[in-house]
Amino acid sequence: MLPLIALVQLVLAAPPFGGVDGYLRALNAVPDPQRIAQWHELLGSEPHIAGTEGDARQVERLRAAFVAMGLQVSVQEFECMLPQPQDAVVEIVMRGESAGPASPGPGARRGVIPLSIRERNLAEDPAAQHPGLTAGWNAFSGSGDVTAPVVYANYGTKQDFQKLKEWGIDCRGKVVLARYGGNFRGYKAKFAEDAGAAALVIFTDPADAGEKKGKTWPEGGWANDTCIQRGSILALEWPGDPETPGEPAEPGAAADGRPALALPSIPVQPIGYGAATQILSRMTGKAVPEGSGFSGGIPAQYRLEGGPDLQLRVKVIQDRARRRSANVVAILPGAVHPEQWVIVGCHHDAWCFGAADPLAGTIALMESARSFAEAAARGERPDRTVVFAAWGAEEYGIIGSVEWAEGHRERLLRSGVAYINLDMAAMGPNFGAACSPSLGEAIRSATVRVPQARGAAGEMVYDRISGGGRKDPQFGDLGGGSDHIAFNCHLGIASASLGSGGSEGNSYHSNYDTIAWYRSTVGADYAPALMITRMTNALAGMLADSPVVPLSAARHGREAQRMLQPLRDRAKAPELVAAIEPLQARAAALSQSGAQLDAALASAMATLGASDRERLDRLLVSLDRAWLDPRGLEGRPWFRSMLAASDRDSGYAATMLPLLAEALDAGDAARVQAAAARYGEVFTRLEKAIADAQSVVQAASTPSGPPAPLGTR
Amino acid sequence: MLPLIALVQLVLAAPPFGGVDGYLRALNAVPDPQRIAQWHELLGSEPHIAGTEGDARQVERLRAAFVAMGLQVSVQEFECMLPQPQDAVVEIVMRGESAGPASPGPGARRGVIPLSIRERNLAEDPAAQHPGLTAGWNAFSGSGDVTAPVVYANYGTKQDFQKLKEWGIDCRGKVVLARYGGNFRGYKAKFAEDAGAAALVIFTDPADAGEKKGKTWPEGGWANDTCIQRGSILALEWPGDPETPGEPAEPGAAADGRPALALPSIPVQPIGYGAATQILSRMTGKAVPEGSGFSGGIPAQYRLEGGPDLQLRVKVIQDRARRRSANVVAILPGAVHPEQWVIVGCHHDAWCFGAADPLAGTIALMESARSFAEAAARGERPDRTVVFAAWGAEEYGIIGSVEWAEGHRERLLRSGVAYINLDMAAMGPNFGAACSPSLGEAIRSATVRVPQARGAAGEMVYDRISGGGRKDPQFGDLGGGSDHIAFNCHLGIASASLGSGGSEGNSYHSNYDTIAWYRSTVGADYAPALMITRMTNALAGMLADSPVVPLSAARHGREAQRMLQPLRDRAKAPELVAAIEPLQARAAALSQSGAQLDAALASAMATLGASDRERLDRLLVSLDRAWLDPRGLEGRPWFRSMLAASDRDSGYAATMLPLLAEALDAGDAARVQAAAARYGEVFTRLEKAIADAQSVVQAASTPSGPPAPLGTR
Q: Residue A101's pLDDT is what?
């Protein structure tokens, strides 16, 4: 392990983060695990599903807390489609001899085995019995009542349905049984519906999150047999309110004139693996092929079909009403550049109590806001504005943040320096991040300043993620999947998602996602949340208070090089290679000119005047905007960033250089060439901005007064 | 005006308030009018009638704000009878020729003139159109639909109904019309019902709060012709939940086994003076006698009866369901004496937006809590515990605070040092207070330390209320009427109600009690609220951090002397005089011994050890408890303080030495003598505690080591 001082020098040698250390220390003197625990108790005290009364109370809690901090607070209401469950039934219906005796006993119906769609009550965690909790459900399910034979579709990915087709399994009219994992659940529903299924039942496989992983709740942290993952199955070509793409969903905004929406039409219902075992163990069709990856952790033969005697009844009734929720936005105006915004956000809505999702992030958001507010109350105010946003209705389809971003589009394009997302951020001691290329240096620099949660004395986050200083820490590519999507994919604002893991368990979207579960599984010491709060403070503090915004110029070209290589590798045809190779060369050159700019900026920092610094701020921010193309992606015009998008067939994963990647997927040479040309335009903008910035730095470094007159003596 | 330094010496010369100046300065460096304005916006953003969803959100706002301050917060739910209005109609029904044409036109009914029971919408204040607002109503009205002739009963006091009887006016079966003022509205309903009335209509007279006082809202601050005073008419012999006298109303607590309650049974409905004018101008009965005080400000002849052609229809439908609300209690534990509690409270519920009632006090409560929390965060924590309480459901019958006090009776009897109430406290620049005798010195001392709102440079509150130092400021006697009642009248805890006035207007319990009204009428500078916050900080800070609790011993006897004099003057019969005079003599002696104790304590303060100070704390606190008598008042056993009660025939006013005063009212010599004997017991307890305290002080002042040995050299 390198001594700390060497690390600091190593990191600070790169981009211009000087001059903010005192401020970052002031910020990070504030966070307190006890206070974080109190945020958790405040915000995790009742279920708060978007659009419900619990949600409205959550909005008021957040508002009041920010007001108490002395921040400028606004509650930004929106109105959008927020379905609510009305009724749901899942029953096994056995036919023929399998149906059992003709008189099955009082209250029973012949051959009918009702399956539980709700978590077991636990004496150990009375919170899980709260009357505001729901049975398991998937928001945006179609409404209907279907009884049909069963097909098992593994994770229900595009590939899984293709395999079923290859194996001659017909999903038409069937109830598809699929397990969670592998993709966003909305795609399971979409692919099932595309395959002609009559209904979809999704279960949590014990091999993925249950008893095969370890002890289950309440003995351990993993999903027990009744644990159900709720969640939205909205999978449109844009996030946010389905009825107002690209427009803010203001209360009362008429949604007429919109095209008919491709919302799910079949009933979709999630269950636990106890219920899934009841189904799987009664299936009699062909066993899943060996090596296919279709087998899971239920101790029964996984089969592709249920056979003639087994039917499933799936009844789901949901409304699709427009309801209200709100974002709570708290602003600390910058002392020097109030028009430059650093935004920190996390959603506040949950499917249940949300102790982990989202509160493991929201508590860090609150404690970070308190850190900035306390420092400001003591006279330490950052140069740039910091915005703390608690977003509404993320769970339904990333609605609150998208609507806010759409409603403030021009302002954000002008003012947005960076966005930091904290969804579920504090889930364990092991820090991780995904980010826009331009934020990689700043995040690394922040890790040097923050103690490792539950680490050795003096151990910093950097030490852990760099393997004791032996490797450059790597951060993931950022696509969609949470509230960064509008900033990252629609507005071209440098974005990061901070997180942490390393805890044994999973309560995701279940009634067990309670504070009791969190404290038992992630820990009652709130050390991960303290680490995340300090990381947020360090990163947002640097972004808000550095003399010039600490966005890396070099990383644009460097990461583009990295992203282009696998695309180049996939492009077999010479004309495709010919389209991509010039981009690789330009990316390499950009990496170099960017690195020169970063270095020149660092050494010239002291000589830069206020107007130079402002110009450089604008130019560095413009590098992220350079990736925007108003035409958007093919078939997904909302996605305007040519740098990053969410994977169109899985939802969660990031697709980098998506215009080019999708053109390659389509195998269409003309489309690849057109995409390459559009990346050429992006690179031209990057080159120009870097050159302009270099001129500003050079002009500032050159003595600007008149040359010393000759012959004066 | 005396120079400030002289004032400080004057005041500090009396009781022992030394050593806390630094702490009080730290506290009073915190309050900020802008922050107070933000509390107002936070808490006055929607109607929040107890038991409604708006109320539940208000509870969460308060909770979150206290959590954000870092205080220990608990939400204490209670469940009690909280009626809600279902329907109401007030109509003039003319008979005979006065009914007008037989076909009065489309939509009209012959002779029927519907009267408005709701405030006019105002373009100037859109808040008054909020969908959560109600029509005018009086909580706990009986339900019914009555049409009957009219009797006018002036203010509907006991005396007014007596006069009607003297004048031969029969209220039986009639609709009584009475104006607000003169007593608590619950007594109007009680007396009307006692007189046999079939219904009661209460109006705001323009001479009392409307256009005769000045410009009306929105041009000025006074009630316009549609302004309606809502409010509870609960008038039982105990405050709090009607169904759980003396017991905490915990959620789910069964209320069976309770005696039948004497709740109002006739319909009672409030109206504005526009509607009242419609009625009064159609009355044809006998004019009110000249000089009777029955005439008001409506430009019509006030008459005692409506005459044969005029009837009023009054329909009121209300439920009487048990609903939930909550107190929000935030604690800052004392550093030295955590078991000694100084409590600051104000209710949070309102009939409408509540910008004035209660928020003119609640905002000072919040800012005071923030002051203590900020000081604590900087390491300045008071010796004693300070409790900040936002009470629920005060408007229905002082329910939240009473239930909390009943639920914590033993703890409060042991730990309660003082209670400070802030209901509607910041209503103008002119400070005023009502208090228990023992708090008079501390409040005066606080006024020396707080700048006068909108005052001259250097002018303190003391300067204004002392007429520039020319008179000893007087504070009022404290009875009931708000959340101090349980502390003052049930638990014998030194209590104070801080307030301020001097603004031109009245929006009391109306839909016009909005932030717009408050800022226009009381002011947008929040200077009164700043003054009240600082007064609260100074008073609570002294009480919480003085080396010995700053409760005056002398004032017990001195104020008892003052209170006994008018009772002695009323007692004509020699046996009554004989009962009272000995008490006067003992009160005079108590005044003297108390003053000696106060002086001795002040000069011995430096020599007192920690255990002496703790003993003195207990003894001084016990002086207020000395007034408690477990037998309670005659017919009102809940009222255990023999010092102060609310007036049993008017509700709002304070009755001092109530056991004796009520016995005198009854003109029953034996009862007077028995009461005097019970006051003798109180005085004995006071004498003993003062003597004990004097011993502690003297022992501490006397060198306690062994006498210097003789002959050692």
A: 78
Please, are residues B177 and B160 in contact by the beta-carbon 8 Å criterion?
A: no
| Integer angstrom CA distances of residue B120 from B44, B117, B127, B222, B522 | 20, 9, 12, 14, 22
Give the residues of chain B that fall short of pLDDT 70: 1-19, 252-259, 703-713
Q: Tell me which chain A residues have a C-beta less than 8 angstroms from the C-beta of B57.
A: 56-57, 60
Measured between beta carbons, the chain B residues lying within 8 angstroms of A325 are none
Per-residue confidence (pLDDT) for residue A94, from 0 to 100:
95
Handedness of CA B558, B560, B563, B564 (dihedral sign): negative
* Mean pLDDT for the stretch of residues A681-688: 98
Question: Alpha-carbon distance B362 to B356, whole Å?
Answer: 9
pLDDT at residue B217, as a whole number: 97
Locate B242 and state its tokens. Answer: 């009607």
HEC string of B256-282 equals: CCCCCCCCCCCCEEEECHHHHHHHHCC
**Cα–Cα distances in Å, from B329 out to A543, B60, B67, B366?**
39, 12, 11, 12
The single-letter code of the amino acid at A113 is I
Q: Which of A5-9, A480-484, A705-709, B432-436 has the lowest mean pLDDT?
A: A5-9
Q: Tens digits of per-residue pLDDT, B630-684?
A: 999 999 999 999 999 999 988 889 999 999 999 999 999 999 999 999 999 999 9
Q: What's the pLDDT tens digit per position in A341-356? A: 999 999 999 999 999 9
* ipTM given for this complex: 0.87
Residues A157-186 have pLDDT tens digits of 999 999 999 999 999 999 999 999 999 999
Residue B571: which H helix or E strand, with range? none
Q: Which residue has the tokens 């799936």?
A: A314
Structure tokens at A89: 């039934």
Nearest 10 degrees: CA dihedral of B100, B102, B108, B111? 40
Q: What is the DSSP letter of B605?
A: G
Q: Measure the CA–CA gap between A338 and A387, rounded to whole angstroms.
A: 11
Residue owning tokens 């040698």: A13
Interface test with B, best of A46, A57, A58, A388 (most B CBs within 10 A): A57
Q: Could you give the CA distance from residue B612 to residue B604 in angstroms, rounded to a whole number?
A: 11
Burial classification of residue B259, based on how many CB atoms lie within 10 Å of its CB (0-12 exposed, 13-18 middle, 19 or more buried): exposed
Instruction: Dig out the tokens for B70 from the structure.
Output: 């870092």
Contacts of A57 in chain B (CB under 8 A): 56-57, 60
Instruction: Map residue A332 onto helix, strand or coil.
Output: strand
Kindly tell me the sign of the dihedral angle through the C-alpha atoms of B172, B177, B183, B185: positive
B625 within 8 A of B492, measured Cβ to Cβ? yes
Q: Is the pTM of this model over 0.95?
A: no
Interchain proximity B67–A65, CB inside 8 Å = yes
pLDDT above 60: residue A1: no
Residue B338, judged by CB atoms within 10 A of its CB (0-12, 13-18, 19+), counts as: middle
Confidence band, pLDDT 50/70/90 cuts, at residue A99: confident
What is the rounded average pLDDT of the residues A596-600?
A: 97
Rounded to whole angstroms, the Cα distance separating A684 from A661 reads 20
Buried b (16+ CB within 10 A) or exposed e, A444-456: bbbbbbbbbbeee
Tens of pLDDT, residue by residue over B434-452, are: 999 999 999 999 999 999 9
Bridge-based pairing state of the strands A322-332 and B150-152: unpaired
CB-based contact B42 A67, cutoff 8 Å: yes
Token output for B253: 């607590």
Order of strands across the sheet with A430-435? A72-81, A322-332, A384-391, A337-347, A416-421, A494-501, A430-435, A476-477
Q: Name the minimum distance, in Å, from the CA of A391 to any CA of chain B.
A: 17
